[in-house]
C-alpha cells in the first residue's frame, strides 16, 4: 500500500500504542498501522517511558508526520492489549452536510468554494499549501489577495475566509476563491448562515 503524503493523512492512518507485557509497565513501543485495507505494521523502534502521572510524549517525528500539534484533541480506543489513539475532529460528523453546503455555495457564487478541514480536503482531493491553511486559522471574516492556495498550482488567488468558531475554538473555515466573478457583500449571507449553523452545532 502506497503512503499518501498529502493533506488528509490523519484519516488514512491511526497510531497504535502497544503495552509491553506485565513487569515493564512504564515502557510503550510506538508503532503505526494502516486503518484501511490490509493491516500493515511499521515499527518505529522508538520507546518512550511514562512519567509518574501517566504522561507520554509522542515523538516529534510522529507528530509532524500525522500533523499533530499543540491543542489538538486525542481520542482513545482499546482493543485487547492495545491502546489506540486517534486525532479527534468534531467536524467529521458534519462532513456530509458540509459537502452539500459547499456545493450550494459554489453554485450560487460561480466560484470555487473550499472547506478547510482535513477529511473534506482529502475527500475532494485538494492539496493546499500549508502556509495558506495556517492563514485560514482566524476567528473573524478575512479577505486575502495574492496567495498561493494549491500545492500543484503557482497561480495566486484572492478570496474570503469565513471561519467556524465556538467558545474561542477554531473548527474549520469556508473559503471562496474569487476567480470568475466578484461576489456582492449581500450574497455572503448564505455562507454566514452556514458558518453560524456549524458553529452552533459544536456548542451542543
TrEMBL record:
Record carries keyword Cell wall biogenesis/degradation: no
Alphabetized PROSITE patterns for the sequence: SPOVT_ABRB
SUPFAM superfamilies in alphabetical order: AbrB/MazE/MraZ-like
Domain named SpoVT-AbrB: residues: 45-90
Gene Ontology molecular function, alphabetical: DNA binding
Protein keywords: DNA-binding, Membrane, Transmembrane, Transmembrane helix
Superkingdom per UniProt: Bacteria
InterPro entries the record matches: B_subtilis_Trans_State_Reg, GAF-like_dom_sf, SpoVT-AbrB_dom, SpoVT-AbrB_sf
Residues that span the membrane, as ranges: 15-34
NCBIfam families recorded: lp_hng_hel_AbrB
Protein name: Putative stage V sporulation protein T
Amino acid at each position: 500500500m502506497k503512503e499518501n503524503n498529502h493533506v488528509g493523512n490523519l484519516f488514512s492512518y491511526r497510531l497504535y500504542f502497544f503495552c509491553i507485557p506485565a513487569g515493564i509497565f512504564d515502557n510503550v513501543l510506538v508503532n503505526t498501522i494502516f486503518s484501511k485495507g490490509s493491516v500493515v505494521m511499521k515499527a518505529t523502534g522508538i520507546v518512550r517511558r511514562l512519567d509518574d502521572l501517566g504522561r507520554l510524549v509522542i515523538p516529534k517525528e510522529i507528530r509532524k508526520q500525522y500533523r499533530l500539534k499543540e491543542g489538538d484533541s486525542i481520542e482513545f480506543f482499546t482493543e485487547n492489549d492495545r491502546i489506540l489513539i486517534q486525532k479527534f475532529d468534531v467536524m467529521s460528523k458534519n462532513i456530509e452536510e458540509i459537502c452539500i453546503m459547499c456545493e450550494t455555495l459554489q453554485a450560487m457564487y460561480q466560484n470555487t468554494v473550499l472547506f478547510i478541514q482535513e477529511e473534506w480536503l482529502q475527500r475532494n482531493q485538494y492539496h493546499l499549501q500549508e502556509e495558506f491553511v495556517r492563514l485560514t486559522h482566524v476567528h473573524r471574516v478575512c479577505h486575502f489577495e495574492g496567495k498561493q492556495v494549491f500545492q500543484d498550482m503557482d497561480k495566486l488567488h484572492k478570496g474570503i475566509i469565513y471561519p467556524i468558531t465556538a467558545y474561542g475554538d477554531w473548527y474549520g473555515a469556508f473559503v471562496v476563491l474569487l476567480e470568475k466573478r466578484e461576489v456582492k457583500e449581500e450574497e455572503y449571507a448564505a455562507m454566514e448562515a452556514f458558518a453560524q449553523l456549524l458553529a452552533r452545532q459544536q456548542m451542543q
